[in-house]
Amino acid sequence: MDRILLAAPRGFCAGVAYAIEVVDLALKIHGSPLYVRHAIVHNEWVVRHFEDQGVVFVETIEEIPEGATVVFSAHGVSPEVRKKAAKRNLHIVDATCPLVTKVHNEARHFAEKGYFMIYIGHQGHVEAVGTMGEAPDRMILVENPEDAEKLEIPHYEKLAVLTQTTLSVDEVQQTLAVLRRRFPHLELPKKEDICYATSNRQTAIRNIAPRSDLVLIVGSQTSSNSNRLREVAESFGVESHLVSGPEAILPKWRTDYPVVGVSSGASTPEVLVETVISGLLKGMAHVPVEIVQTAEENLSFQPPRKLIELAQA
Q: For residues 267 and 20, what is the distance between their CA atoms, to the nearest angstrom?
């Protein structure tokens, strides 16, 4: 290995940082056990970190004792989940990413205006399930251009499209092209649904992949945006792997690939990237790490003031 190209930006997006801070504040206020519906973000390291502090991750509201506190994960939940939480008298702390909330608001807006919606997303992904729950009888899911080509729906005078926030920018554009051709009156949200961090990280990979012999994405297998980064790298014909930590490093990656590109998903803590780079450099002296900056990010989301005040009380 002659050098490492380290993509920037990488790692935590504003929504993930927000969700983690919300759980930290909720722990200070309510103590443990603190219940979180679904993994707060899709990263095992983050989940284990919180489990060590007494956080209990559950998949259903029914698993939570009545009257307890529940944190909704960054991916958002459907109105039905909120109703179930209210029935069990749960105290709700909402860590939904504001950019996911934006898509929920769009779904409600279009539904109230009498639109039928096409949702571009991954079947079964928790974000998709939550968003589609806003108008389950007025929304249908497509995953890719092939689905869009085969889609059969009755004619609707009002038709709109929404998107999961963590998808491949290129594939969404291809899917949208098919939908626009087939449904010329299709209405789009005023602002793109794919989040800025997903777009920025994919742009960074497009920059380093053509210059790399191998690309490693540090992230979890369950992370949609991390998987999309690997796919973007592979679209350049470059061997790419999604690794959760340094234990996944193969010896041949140090010896058989002159230039290794490294990035990480939006839910991956920087400490994991650092340990992967250290693992790559083990036993190798004078291998430079070149940071390849393609965008500056300064967006941040502040937790609710009441939450901060309670944590400081």
A: 10
pLDDT at 108 over 90: yes
C-alpha dihedral, 140 to 38 to 165 to 141, nearest 10°: -10
* CA count, 13 A, side-chain hemisphere, 148: 23
**CATH pick for 14-96+301-312 out of 3.30.70.920, 3.40.50.11270, 1.20.120.80, 3.40.367.20:** 3.40.50.11270
* pLDDT value of position 174: 95
pLDDT of residue 190: 78
| Fold equal for 3-12+197-293 and 14-96+301-312 | no
In whole angstroms, give the CA distance from residue 295 to residue 220. Answer: 23
Judge whether 127 counts as a catalytic residue. Answer: yes
Q: Is CATH 3.40.50.720 the right assignment for the domain spanning 3-12+197-293?
A: no
Beta bridge partners of 139: 117
Is a pLDDT exceeding 90 seen at residue 252? yes
- What is the spatial distance between Cα 54 and Cα 303, in angstroms, rounded to a whole number? 21
Question: Is the dihedral angle over the CA atoms 247, 233, 300, 60 positive or is it negative?
Answer: negative
Residue 263: strand pairing partners: 217
Mean per-residue pLDDT of the chain: 95
pLDDT digits (tens, 9 = 90+) for 118-135: 999 999 999 999 999 999
Alpha carbon distance 261, 23 (integer Å): 32
* pTM of the model as a whole: 0.92
Annotated catalytic residue within 21, 127, 134, 143: 127
pLDDT at 212 exceeding the cut of 90: yes
First-residue to last-residue Cα distance in the chain: 52
